[in-house]
Each structure stands twice: as C-alpha cells, then as structure tokens.
C-alpha cells in the first residue's frame, strides 16, 4: 500500500504549503491561486490570465520551458475554474527543484509580451470557450450559475469577448493575484522538508506578500428564476438550488443517491462545492426533447414529494472518503442526514426549447 | 545568409572601433544621400526586403499606429515613383525621424527562430 505522511506548514512565508508523500515515482506540484472567474473584475479575465501561464518569462521562453520539461518527462497545465486558477506540473520526483523554479517564474516573471495575446493566448482562449459552449450541459451549468449568483460565481467562466480586456488588464490582475498570501502550494509524492526548502530558496519567496482574495462571506443567492436558450443539438433541462455551507452533507448524500443505482430517475446530479456556498444541480439530457421534459418533470415531482436519503449515507461517506484521498477535498460528516425536500429552485432549458417544459409546469 | 541579428552585431562592432567608425559612418551618410529614399518619404526600415516569414511576423507585431504610418510611407513613395517626382524638400524624412522602428521586432523574431532551431537540434 501507499505509505504516506501528511504534513502542512507555513514556515518562513505566507504561502500555505502542503505535501503528501507517496512511494510512487511521479510527483505533482499544484499552485492554487484564488483568482478564478468569481474574483476577476472583468468577465473572462481569469481565463485569459490562466491561458497566459507558461508563456515567455524573463529567465526562459515558452518554447524552452516546454522543451526542457519534455526532456525531463514532465507536463504543465493551467486551468481556470470559478474560484481559482490552478497551475499544475506532473514530473518525476527527482526534478522537483526545476519545477518549483519553473512554476515560481511563471507567477513572478511572465513577460506579457504584447504579441503573445493576439498570437497565442486569444486563439487558445476562443477555442476553449467555443468547445465548452458547444456542450449544452456546460451551457446549462453556466446559465444556472448566472441565475443563482448573478455576479461573482455567476460570471461566465471563459472569455467571450463581451467585455474588452487589454494586456494591461491582464498584467494588473496577475500582479494582484500572484501574491504569497493568495496562493497555496499542494504537492504529492514529494518530501515536505525538501519542498519547503526549495520553495523558500525559489522565486516563490520573492513574490509580494499581498492578501488573500478568497471569498470570506457567502454571496447573495437568488431562487425562482428561469431561462431558456435555443440551440441545435442535444436538449438539456436543469434545476439548481443554492446550498448553504450548513447543508453540504445533505446535498452530498443526495448527489450520491441520484447518481447511483438506488435512484430510478434518469437525471445526472452535480454538487459544486465552493468555499462559502454550493450549487446543487440536476440535469436531464437527451437528443429527444420530449424525453428530457418527461425526465425533468419526474425528477422534480419526486424531489418535491420528499426523499428518504438514509439508504445512500454509506455510499456517500465512501465516495467522500475516496475524494479526500485523491483530491484532498475535506469530507463532510454525513451521519446526521435524514431526508430531502425540494423547495424553490432555478430552472434552465437549453436546446429544443419548444418541447421543453417551463418552470411552472414542473 | 546574413541575418539582421548578425548585421546589428557587425554594426555595433564598427561603432565600437574608432578606426572603422571613422571610415564607415561618413560612408553611410554618403550612401543614404545617394540612395535618396528619404527624398520620397521612406525610412531605412521600409527598405528591408519583407517577403520572408521572419519579416512578415515582425510586421504583424508592429503596433497599429506604426503599421499605418509604414503603409502611408509606402503609398507616398509609390506615388512619387510613378510620377517621377521627389517630395517637396520640407517633406523629406529628416535624419532624426529615420528611426529603426521595425528592427527590435525583427531581432526578437530572429531570436525566436534561432532558439527553435537550436532546441530542435538539441543533443542530450
């Protein structure tokens, strides 16, 4: 079995560093920056900054970084979500110092050359947005977030060109978010002492102190809204409920229940857990809009009638424990969960809207 | 073929060496006067042969304002050539206006090409 030690430290500087030791040969290093789409002042800014990561830096060019990393057998990735930008590297354990420095340079000294924006950042960002928005489930998810949170978490995840973003905006945003207090370093398969030493010797230690931009209070949420979006392709009907931090356990169990064989409903449930608030969504999807209508009606009817969740508690506890092992998301205690009854919700219909129900018909 | 990078290097060497400098600088002024490109409204960087991928890339990176001014100068020069006229003397490009506006971009692109070439042929 995997032998491991779990340790966390904030020695020396403000960045939180967490390392897990595995006996395997592959290590990962992840820098989580509180700079997702809900933090950015303009829609799409976080996405563009995320796409700017691993471009030319003062010490080395983007091409050199990629080629050097290929020679070492490593991989880089930068992802944006609603709360954070995640820079991650996967590599063989012995190349840890190189990757600590490389990730540090990306945060500290990306050059933001003017030609990079039109030549490589914008085209890549547009492809991201186009391919994501081509999926009706993603579209429904975006609309449900927009209905529920309006701004902040409701802002579009990807750059869509509605708000004009200049290179200066991206530079300013990078300077604001890439600070010691606003980033968290998570590593797996490395030694905690080594990692802390390498980080304190690297440019991570030269980042400005700054302050954490993580959400401190639960945002205002809105319920009872509805929207419809015509598009060709598959039809999707979705229902979303904002979840207070105190109710996380109930919704975790409900999600496990609906996605398991225990439930007879033909819908997919998702629980997006953010730091101060959650969003529970159920999505019915099919190329036949009448089938979607029947599925979402059946699901809402059953959830409104009330549901005994005690059967799914053990399943949810196992799933959460597994997620804690693999991703480090802290599991909630599901012991007290009893039953669930759907109250007010937000509703979205995407696709063949002529054959999809309205919210008051559910 | 000589790249712009190597030309700039040679130029820097000439400017650093007093003897070469005293020969080449007056020659260059003589050349500029004889070439007469300033008299039809062009700058030296407008004369760079631009039908190569490197120069095209550099041109695409020019700021919009520079790019517009360059096109304007090219059109003016073409008109002068067609009509066999020089510009009126007050419209000639002055020495201080003849700035290497394209060269920094060219050097950057050439450095990128050289780096790619080196990394493509790397031995480890």
Automatic annotation (TrEMBL), chain A:
It is a peripheral membrane protein. GO terms for molecular function: metal ion binding. Residues 164-306 form the Peptidase M16 C-terminal domain. This is Cytochrome b-c1 complex subunit 2, mitochondrial. Residues 21-159 form the Peptidase M16 N-terminal domain. InterPro entries: Metalloenz_LuxS/M16 (IPR011249), MPP/UQCRC_Complex (IPR050361), Pept_M16_N (IPR011765), Peptidase_M16_C (IPR007863). It comes from the Eukaryota. One of its GO terms (cellular component) is mitochondrial inner membrane. Keywords: Electron transport, Membrane, Mitochondrion, Mitochondrion inner membrane, Respiratory chain, Transit peptide, Transport. It is found in: Mitochondrion inner membrane. The keyword Electron transport applies. It comes from Wickerhamomyces pijperi. Belongs to the peptidase M16 family. UQCRC2/QCR2 subfamily.
TrEMBL record, chain B:
Its main location: mitochondrion. GO terms for biological process: mitochondrial electron transport, ubiquinol to cytochrome c. It comes from the Eukaryota. InterPro entries: QCR7 (IPR003197), QCR7_sf (IPR036544). Keywords: Electron transport, Membrane, Mitochondrion, Mitochondrion inner membrane, Respiratory chain, Transport. It is found in: Mitochondrion inner membrane. It is a peripheral membrane protein. Belongs to the UQCRB/QCR7 family. Component of the ubiquinol-cytochrome c oxidoreductase, a multisubunit transmembrane complex that is part of the mitochondrial electron transport chain which drives oxidative phosphorylation. This is Cytochrome b-c1 complex subunit 7.
């Amino acid at each position: 079995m995997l032998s491991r030690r779990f340790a966390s430290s904030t020695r020396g500087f403000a960045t939180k560093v967490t390392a897990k030791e595995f006996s395997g040969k592959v290590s990962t290093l992840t820098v989580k920056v509180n700079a997702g789409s809900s933090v950015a002042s303009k829609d799409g800014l976080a996405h563009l900054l995320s796409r700017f990561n691993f471009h030319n830096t003062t010490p080395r060019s983007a091409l050199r970084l990629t080629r050097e990393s290929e020679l070492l057998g490593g991989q880089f990735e930068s992802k944006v979500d609603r709360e954070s930008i995640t820079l991650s590297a996967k590599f063989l354990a012995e190349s840890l110092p190189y990757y600590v420095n490389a990730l540090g340079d990306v945060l500290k000294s990306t050059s933001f050359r003017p030609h990079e924006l039109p030549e490589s950042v914008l085209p890549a960002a547009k492809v991201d947005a186009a391919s994501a928005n081509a999926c009706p489930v993603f579209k429904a998810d975006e609309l449900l977030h927009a209905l529920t949170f309006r701004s902040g978490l409701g802002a579009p995840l990807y750059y869509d060109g509605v708000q004009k973003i200049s290179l200066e905006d991206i530079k300013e945003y990078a300077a604001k978010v890439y600070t010691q207090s606003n980033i968290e370093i998570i590593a797996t398969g490395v030694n905690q002492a080594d990692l802390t030493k390498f980080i304190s010797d690297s440019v991570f230690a030269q980042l400005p102190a700054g302050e954490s931009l993580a959400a401190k209070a639960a945002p205002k949420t809105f319920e009872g809204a509805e929207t419809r979006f015509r598009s060709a392709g598959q039809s999707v009907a979705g229902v979303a409920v904002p979840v207070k931090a105190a109710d996380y356990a109930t919704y975790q169990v409900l999600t496990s229940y609906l996605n398991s064989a225990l439930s007879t409903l033909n819908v997919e449930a998702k629980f997006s857990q953010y730091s101060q608030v959650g969003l529970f969504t159920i999505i019915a999807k099919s190329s036949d809009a009448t089938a979607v209508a029947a599925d979402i009606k059946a699901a809402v009817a059953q959830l409104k009638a009330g549901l005994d969740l005690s059967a799914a508690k053990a399943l949810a506890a196992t799933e959460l424990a597994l997620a804690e092992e693999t991703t480090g998301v802290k599991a909630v205690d599901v012991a007290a969960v009893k039953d669930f009854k759907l109250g007010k919700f937000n509703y979205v219909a995407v696709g063949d809207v002529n054959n999809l129900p309205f919210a008051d018909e559910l | 073929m000589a790249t712009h990078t190597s030309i700039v290097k040679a130029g820097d060497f000439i400017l650093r060496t007093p003897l070469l400098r005293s020969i080449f600088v007056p020659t260059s002024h003589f050349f500029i006067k004889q070439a007469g490109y300033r008299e039809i409204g062009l700058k030296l960087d407008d004369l760079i042969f631009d039908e190569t991928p490197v120069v095209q890339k550099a041109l695409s990176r020019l700021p919009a304002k520079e790019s517009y001014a360059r096109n304007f100068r090219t059109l003016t020069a073409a008109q002068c050539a067609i009509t066999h006229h020089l510009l009126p003397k007050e419209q000639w490009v002055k020495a201080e206006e003849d700035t290497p506006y394209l060269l920094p971009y060219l050097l950057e692109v050439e450095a990128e090409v050289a780096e790619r070439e080196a990394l493509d042929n790397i031995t480890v």
